Amino acid sequence: MRDQLVDALRGHDADYVETRFEESHNTNIVYKGKSLEEISRARSSGGSIRALVQGSWGFVSFDGLEDLADKVVLAVEEARLAGREPLDLFPTEPVVDIVTPQLRQDAAAMPLAVKKELLDEYNDIILSSPKIQSSRIIYRDARRKVIFANSEGSYIEQDRPDLSLRLTAIAREDGEVQQAGISLGSNCEFSAVEGLHEQAREIAKRAAALLVAPQAKGGEYTVILDPILAGLFAHEAFGHLSEADFVYQNENLRQIMVLGKRFGGKHLNIVDDATIPDLRGSYKYDDEGTPTRKTYLIREGILEGRLHSRETAARMGERPTGNARAVNYRFPPIVRMTNTFIEPGDASFEDMLADIKEGVYARDWYGGTTSLEMFTFSAGEAYMIRQGRLAELLRPVVLTGNVFATLENIDAIGNDLEMNQGGGCGKGGQYPLPVSNGSPHIRIRHCVVGGR
Question: Which residues in the chain are classed under CATH 3.30.2290.10?
């Protein structure tokens, strides 16, 4: 296959040409209450060609390798028709490599019956709990082999394994409905989804408890976020603003996201790093064949970097970071996050609580939206803080604010970094892209909490 791919790229009147070819197999299991809505295994293969001609891209996807050179010609012709301003890709050294992960218990190799039996156990636990009306379970594992070649001489084979699971318990009483859940994932290690029986019981208990929990009184509080919700804040509210294609295309954002500008205290460091082993957002080379690296977005409160493809790096005069990613071969790579997190500080959770007379402790995620620098997040679980101690359980609270003001108001960062591997990232119609995000506990002064 290598010769076939490399030969197809030769002899074309283009500034640059690349191809990606993928072979994948996926397992999906979905429950809604007692109903098993889906249980499936699927195999697929296909690829894409991307050609650059005089500053314009042409893109063609395909399902088979026959007539591959003709598909390259089509991509080149599309690029020539588009016609844009000149564009040079940031130069990178050609790479030849084969990357194979070492898994102890590959989920893709586990029998389908074993997966179903385990999920049946979790579903039975949730549904047998008091006041639980229904459940929702979504399990997915995937193995993708991605082969990349370009006209500059790169040839890379990479395996991209992934696994995700979401368990949700839905409680109902007297017309009131509440829910609680957990999301997790791994780089296809099946052990990540084993032994969750107690967690299944806990989310069912929490969903039932939320039926009678009070709402917070709306207002401005000192808020502590747990690692899951703080990681979501780092990803959604700030990480997307650090993706260079978004910055380059938005004049207002370019004036805000100026390298060297202060956005927080010296204790604040936000990082994107695909080089960390065994996380869902980890890989060695991105979908342009660029090696990954650790990128400080904020270091000691100062905006230090952003995430790049070769195109955005050339346009903005900065280095590529290995963040060009595509969810599969049907899409061209765009700038995406990998493993994004706030680095740990030195505060303990007890220290953060100690001097709060009245505040809110918000945990886990329920949903949220962002619009440029404004965000609104719903916590999946919350507690009042009174006189330095955790108090009563609250119904899910909504946190809202300006991301830059919020970064300035982070006055304490915990020493307990955790990475959340549940869920997936969406952008440009490409979803769900495997990522991880994380943080220690963080404390935010003057945070607006919605309530009654």
Answer: 2-210
